[in-house]
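anyone seen this seq b4? input:
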Amino acid sequence: MFKQSKLSSSIISAVMASAMGVQGVSADSTDLTRLEEVVVTATYKASLQRAMDIKRHSGGVVDAISAEDMGKFPDTNLAESLQRISGVSIDRSGGEGQYVTVRGFGPQFNTVLVNGRTLSTDNQGREFSFDTLPSELVSSVNVHKTSSAALQSGGIGATVNLKTARPLDIDGFKTAGSVKGVYGTYSEETSPQISGMVSNTFLNETLGVLLSVNHQERSGRSDEAMTRGFLVNTGIPEAELTNSAENVFVPRNYDQRVNFDERTRSGGNLVLQYSPMDELTLTADVLYSKFDIETDVTALAHWFTSSNLENVVTDDNGTVVHLEQNTGFATDFLAQTFNRKSETTALGFNADWGVTDSLTLTFDASYSESIVDDEDGDADVQSTIGYLNRIAYDHTDGADLPSIYGFQEANGSVGHYLDPANTRAHYMQRAGWDTEDRVTQFKMDGVWDEGSSSGLTKASFGLMYTAQTKTNTRYDNTYGPHCVFCGYPDSPVGDGIANQVVFDAGSDFLGGLSGSVPTQWLRHNAEEQFQKLEDASGISFDAIRQGNSYQVEENTLAAYFEFEFMGELGRMPFTAHTGLRLESTDATVDGTEAPLERLVILDQTELLAVTSVPSPISANTDYSAFLPNMDFKLNVTDDLIARLAYSKSMTRPTVDQLVPAININGTTQGGDLAASSGNPELQPFESDNLDLSLEWYYGDTSYVSVGYFKKQVSNFIVNHVQPLTFTDSAGNLVTDPSTGDITTIYPGQDASEAVDANDEVAVFGLTSPSNGEEAEVDGLEFTVQHAFGETGFGVIANATFVDSNAELDVNDITQTFALTGLSDSLNLVGFYERGPFQIRLAWNSRDKFLQSLTQEVGSEPIFVDAYDQWDISGSYDINENVSVFFEGINITDEIITKHGRYDNQMLLVTDTGARYALGVRATF
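predicted toks r here
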């Protein structure tokens, strides 16, 4: 069920009351000729009309978003605009839209193009981050929900094509710009955002130049509570379980933290066009975006070790709702950074040539690269101080958040966890991935059009070659000095810890949730702490390149043809397309693997994986795909359109799934020995797609649409877990030193002294992927867009309901496959635009969905709870050139929550607060 607050209900009622109280529906018929004659002065309404026009006249099922004006997109973020389309949902990062899910298929299942070209991504995989591109650089977005032979493959969910402005499409000189300040309710800071665009044509409009630039800064704060995961049936002593359960789920940890973000996004787009004759247009363009996020985190952390737990109580599902830990427990204060330094550049050249009156050829060459520079390991820096402690975790009351109480030191004293004199250095980590993604693409497309209006009216054909290289290089100090001070040694202590202060999160910290939440803890400076420990130990804590780095090269050759037919069926005009796309892909995987040599004890909770010298690995794979398509559009009347479409589509495996190297993921005492590897033999996902829709266009900007879709997907990739043991360079099985007679080391004692003859063989759970599963997804999409005559009021409402035969049975811990991302969604937008005034209120709601089958630790699922968000924007035109505007994002301060297999297995609570902006925009 969708959650809906009282404030949300009130806002819905107000919007619907104002909209439904206005009479006067226009029912004029609409055709292409009439669309060219309509003059719409209201910019938001004009953008809706352009988007409706694209949807109406497309061959397949296509939804679109159009800029209101030059450099002015409906929402502040591309993903947040896309979520207004039926069937499209988004995932947020720092309160900002980042990834899109279409018809239940997540970001890795959607192909994202810019001007029809593949764009490199700053992620380790294929998914595209929409927050890297400022919305001001984009003029329109088309979401192709059905496939055609001319579209590039890869999008079982959809193909999303972002289009940037072209100067020859703009008459003469035009310039636009805006300046605004953005205020965050939690950061309580105001940050600047500036954008500008200028376009002009010369030489009798045969030469055009367009330049757009954008710079945004934003200071943000988010409050969080989190658990890294729930472990299943680990080594809790049976005598400490106060009740029995078939399966026992114990939290790995429980942290609460405050994230301080500094986001800086700068970008630009330069386009040159030259049309020396009507039959030829040459276009060269460069797109650039730089996106830096600096995240400073302070956290209070509690770590649980199953073998040390006492008085453990589970509920009926086996979830641990109470535990105590009197030995080996750590109360820690974390200073972390999660920085993201992304840079994307895209170059392109296009020649559109009308060879004859019937034949048009288009040649396109492009290159793009995305780089995440993280050789310093800034993406995951963690400086941990703390002390051994006694504590109790309690979630028996069913509150939103569990309670932590006790805060006892080993000597029994209470209340000293805020005393800097008690802390010790514990764990020092620098880690991150340095990513480079490079895409080179050449395309030739042709259209043969004799101008006939019936029978075979058009033939399209083309060739495409794409070469993509993704390099992910790991930098960290995991196998180096990060645990020189593990085990809470006696030195350094007190003033040996850098700049300890008592941090106060505020009385309203996670105030919208029930549960006992401490609001004060110790905070320190991570970089200064690194320097202090380096000075004390004489050892560098710098990140270095590690063995689990890899590179994947993919070369794809594609060819296609497609035919268009027009005619009448019972005096009803129809248009049909049928085609075939053929693709051949060769992939090469190169990397290194560092074999496990031994495990040593670090402290009462952790083991250290010691590896030998990395060795090279290499693998090759190839596959071909035959992707037919057919769509049929029937004009039942001038205003009523029926559609039928069939296509076959594919999505390639993610990059990391192809790498055969074995990586060590978990070495925690108490049953958490985990490893993973990829599989270079993986084949692409394949989907047979069916779409049916009926669309009624009854006004200039008004229509109703209902659609049904069905996808039969095969070759789903499933992770399997199997036991794995390692053999060292001497041929001996690697053992777990925490299982024998000596399970503790002391300050000054060598870790190897914990090894004894009774140590058990270390058995890891190896997670690896393979093809094999099938799934069926079907759903309904409803859309209503209605303008209330000439009143200026309008409403947009859509709903998507999706279902699958591959849903997760939460009571079956052996189930290894379920479809992620499936969820129902609702959108409601009410707007008023008349004269100098414009205001828009938007509500988006997404139902609960399965996000992942694996948590940060372990192989348990992640569910995202139902979430709804209200946004508002408005403007006033001072004159025909200048307007002032305001924006509000998440104005009801909704909170994102995630849980594990059962509702009370809290994994993440994120509260980002609201954002407001005030600015001035000018167009000349």
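DSSP finds five helices and 48 strands in the chain. The first helix runs from residue 6 to 20. kinda curious what u guys think
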